[in-house]
Amino acid sequence: MNINGYTRTCGLIGNPVEHTMSPAIHNTLAQAMGENLVYVPFRVQKDGLLAAIEGAYALNLQGLNITVPYKSQVIPCLKEIDPLARLIGAVNTLVYTEGGYKGYNTDMPGLYRAMCEDGVGMEGENILILGAGGAARAVAILAAKKGAGQIILFNRTLEKANKVAEEVNAMEGKALVRALTLEDYGTLPKGEKYLAIQATNVGMFPDVEKAVIEEEEFYKRVHTGYDLIFNPAETLFMKRVRENGGKAFGGLKMLLYQGIIAYELWTGRQVDEILAQKAYSKMKKAMGIR
Ligand code: ATR
Fold first, then answer.
1. What gap in Å lies between CA 249 and CA 103, rounded to an integer?
2. Rounded to whole angstroms, what are the CA distances from 134 to 89, 160, 161?
3. In this structure, are residues 28 and 256 in contact, taking their beta carbons and an 8 Å threshold?
4. Which residue lies with its CA nearest to atom 24 of ligand 1?
5. Is 210 a catalytic residue?
6. Buried b (16+ CB within 10 A) or exposed e, 127-153
């Protein structure tokens, strides 16, 4: 790579950032597309977020990704925010604009693009979402916006699921989302099959032997399962879905496409599927997956 006076810099702000896969995605894309752009991680301490964003802007950084724990905290530092990111309440991508950064959420569009790639649709689908935290709430909003049929949230803490359901129903102006506890899956009609999206952190490395719902009975009702977790590559949730005849997908492709969508926002260029696959292979290699 030839770094010169025209090189544009993008980067990741978070804490920690040491295990990020984003440099592998963006530097692969930039190199393959002949874009004079480099992507670097920046670890930012919690009292340094505003200074980091202002500093990045002053240094003319073209774009930033924002990760844990700053996806909501960054919102007051922005000049403008995309409507979907505002609804979700989390921003993971900043784009340089006149007067300040504009914030986007590419996590949910990334999930959607991964699903399209996998041939899985949301429109008219009855969807089960496991969890009611920030990620699950974002998935519920995405599903609502993509015209899902019925959405059922399962969560350990029912009040949290109720709150998310109320919020999304208020956004949509109709009773689209229902909240249940994890044990309540038995109330789903037998014989009916659902798309299930696993949006809790249960089953994430190193707790790979766990799933938020472990009973086979639940998985008999799932035709397709998505786990937002990408490490391990096959979670117990995915394994159970497959064992019961369903198709299962992990979070790595969502991670790829959230990066690709961010890259497209920064450069104004479209990433084709061949290149997307190349970046995906790099990520899998970085994770030790064949
Ligand atoms: P994120 O922003 O990644 O969504 P979060 O907001 O902390 O993270 O949400 C974590 C989700 O995982 C919640 O739905 C949480 O359930 P509660 O709302 O009951 O806390 C769920 N979760 C985490 N650990 C869990 C466990 N051991 N059993 C069941 N659910 C769990």
1. 28
2. 9, 10, 11
3. no
4. 202
5. no
6. bbbbbbebbbbbbbbbbbbbebeebbb
pTM beyond 0.85: yes
> Would strands 100-104 and 93-97 be described as parallel, antiparallel, or unpaired?
antiparallel
Q: How far apart are CA 107 and CA 136, in angstroms?
A: 12
CB-ligand 1 contact for 14 (6 Å cutoff): no
Per-residue pLDDT of the chain (290 residues; tens, 9 = 90+): 789 999 999 999 999 999 999 999 999 999 999 999 999 999 999 999 999 999 999 999 999 999 999 999 999 999 999 999 999 999 999 999 999 999 999 999 999 999 999 999 999 999 999 999 999 999 999 999 999 999 999 999 999 999 999 999 999 999 999 999 999 999 999 889 999 999 999 999 999 999 999 999 999 999 999 999 999 999 999 999 999 999 999 999 999 999 999 999 999 999 999 999 999 999 999 888 77
Looking at ligand 1, which residue's alpha carbon is closest to its atom 9?
A: 133
- Cα–ligand 1 centroid distance for 265 (angstroms): 31
Residue 273's SS3 state is helix
Percent helix, percent strand, percent coil in the chain, to nearest 5: 40, 20, 40
Q: Which of 71, 102, 239, 253 is catalytic?
A: 71
Residue from 159, 200, 215 to probe ligand 1 pocket by mutation (most atoms less than 8 Å from CB): 200
Q: Is 165 in the pocket of ligand 1 (CB under 6 A)?
A: no
